[in-house]
Specification:
Elements: E1 6-8, H1 21-34, H2 41-52, H3 59-70, H4 75-87, E2 91-94, E3 99-102, E4 111-117, E5 123-128, E6 145-150, H5 153-157
Helix pairs in contact: 1-2, 2-3, 3-4
């Protein structure tokens, strides 16, 4: 499997590049508390693994990493945690890779926009604006993920 990393390619009004793993986990804990949700020790551990991955990670890779510390958790345990984090905006699912990536961009109207290199699997995340104004009359958008496929700058130079 190729190493995949996340780089924010769009200047943001918030800083997310300099946060340590523990700062990101604590920020996630605060978001859970603000939403009256439980940030259990297992959820905290799974979220920490996602953050430490430094890029998209698959559910079964998380499961393998949990086994030494948590016995033998079952796949639904990980998928429930991933759904929980996605609902709160703490992770995004990268559809093309069937993987999840940590996100601390919890500002209103945030839509994940991914640029996925088809050669090296590098993933860059930028921030698109809400597309609610583009929706057909009466259509209510529940979530949006935009994925672009092509070559990253490095791979394009060697093509």
């Amino acid at each position: 499997m190729n190493h995949i990393r996340t780089i924010s390619a769009t200047p943001c009004e918030h800083d997310h590049s300099g946060k340590s793993v523990s700062e990101q986990v604590n920020a996630a804990r605060k978001i859970c508390e603000q939403q009256d949700e439980r940030f259990t020790p297992l959820r905290a551990h799974i979220y920490e693994l996602i953050v430490r991955a430094d890029g998209p990670i698959k559910a079964y890779d998380l499961l393998e990493q949990l086994r030494p510390d948590r016995g033998s958790p079952k796949p639904p345990t990980v998928y429930r945690a991933l759904d929980f984090f996605a609902r709160l905006g703490l992770v995004h699912r990268v559809e093309a890779l069937n993987a999840y990536i940590a996100c601390d961009h919890t500002h209103p109207g945030h839509v994940a926009e991914f640029f996925i290199c088809e050669r090296c699997d590098e993933v860059k995340e930028t921030h698109a604006h809400s597309h609610e104004n583009c929706a057909p009359n009466g259509f209510v958008i529940s979530s949006s993920v935009i994925e672009h496929y092509g070559l990253c700058e490095t791979c394009a130079l060697t093509a």
